[in-house]
Amino acid sequence: MKQVMNQDGRGPGVILPGTSVYKVRAERSGREYVIYVFVPDIAPPPSGYPVIYLLDANAVFGTMVEAMRVQSVRSDKTGVVPAVIVGIGYEAKQPFPAERYYDFMMQVPEADLPRRPDGASWPKYGGAEAFMHFIEEQLKPEVEEKYSIDRRRQSIVGHSLGGLLVLQMLLGNPGTFRHYIAGSPSIHWNSAWIKQQRASWVLRAENCGTEMHVLIAAGEQEGSHPSGVVSRSRELAHWLGQTGLEGFSAEFTCFEDEGHISVLPILMSRAIRFASIG
C-alpha cells in the first residue's frame, strides 16, 4: 500500500492498490469532477471487465474497493467477480460535499422540497440531467477507451441523493446500465416525477431490449424517518418486480439494525455481489 503526502502537507495519505485518480471537466456544464478508478490485478476476461460506476466517491470509494479486493479473490465463495470501479467525486475534504445536491437532483418546485431540519435553504440543485449526460456521453466513453470494459455488464451505485439519481436514470432512460443499486434513495425529493415516469416506463423499458436488475435497499433504523424511505423503497421495488418484463428483476433489502449512514459498508458489499449477477 503506497503512502504519499497529502496536499495539505499534514502527513502521509494512502493510495489504494490498483487505483488511480484524475480530474475531468464536464463538456456540457463545465463542472469539474475527481474520478477514482480501481482496476483488478488480473487480466481482463475476453469480453472485458464488468464496470461499476459509484456515486459519492468521496465517502465510499475506499470502502467498495477494499470489499472488491478481498471478496473477488474467492469468487466461488463470495459470488463477487473482479470488476473495474469508477468513482465520481469532488475536490473536497467532506465525504458528502454540497455539490452533490446540484448533480443528483432535478429541477423541482421549491414548494415540493422537504423542509431542512435547521430551517436553512437547501444548496443549489437542479443539474441532474446534465450530470447524467456527463456519465453517458463523456465518462463512459473515456473509461471504455482506457480500459477493457464489457459494455453489457455495467452497474451504477448510489446512496441517499445518489440513490435518487440511480432511480432517475432507471426510470428516465432505462437500459443504460444492467444493474441499478439504489441505497436509501431520497424518493421524497422527486416523488411527483417518479410517479409520472411510472405511467409509461414499462413500454419504454420493453423497447430498450436490455437485461436489467434493480436492487433498492435501506437500513432498518430508517423506518421511522418522516421521509418514508423504507416504505417508499419497498413499494417501488415491489411495483418494478411486478411489471413482468423479460430479463428484468427488482428486489428490496432492509438491513437489520442499520441507519442511514451506518448502512454504507454493508450496502457496498452487497452492491458488488449484486453487480456480479450474470
In short:
By secondary structure, this protein is α/β, with parallel strands linked by helices.
Would you write up a description of this structure?
There is one protein chain. With 278 residues, the protein is an alpha/beta fold. It is 35% helix and 24% strand. The chain is built from 8 helices and 10 strands. The protein has helices at residues 57-71, 75-78, 99-104, 128-146, 161-172, 191-208, 229-241, 264-274, and strands spanning 2-5, 12-15, 19-25, 32-38, 49-54, 84-89, 149-159, 179-183, 212-219, 248-255. Helix 1 (57-71) packs across helix 8 (264-274) and helix 5 crosses helix 6 (191-208). The chain starts with a strand and ends with a helix.
Distinctive features:
8-stranded mixed β-sheet; 278 residues; two-stranded antiparallel ribbon; alpha/beta; 8 helices; 10 strands; disordered N terminus
Q: Work out the helicity level.
A: 25-40%
SSE order in H/E notation?
EEEEEHHEHHEHEHEHEH
Sheet with the most strands, sense and barrel status: 8 strands, mixed
Mean pLDDT: 92
Topology:
Layout: E1 2-5, E2 12-15, E3 19-25, E4 32-38, E5 49-54, H1 57-71, H2 75-78, E6 84-89, H3 99-104, H4 128-146, E7 149-159, H5 161-172, E8 179-183, H6 191-208, E9 212-219, H7 229-241, E10 248-255, H8 264-274
Parallel strand pairs: 5-6, 5-7, 7-8, 8-9, 9-10
Antiparallel strand pairs: 1-2, 3-4, 4-6
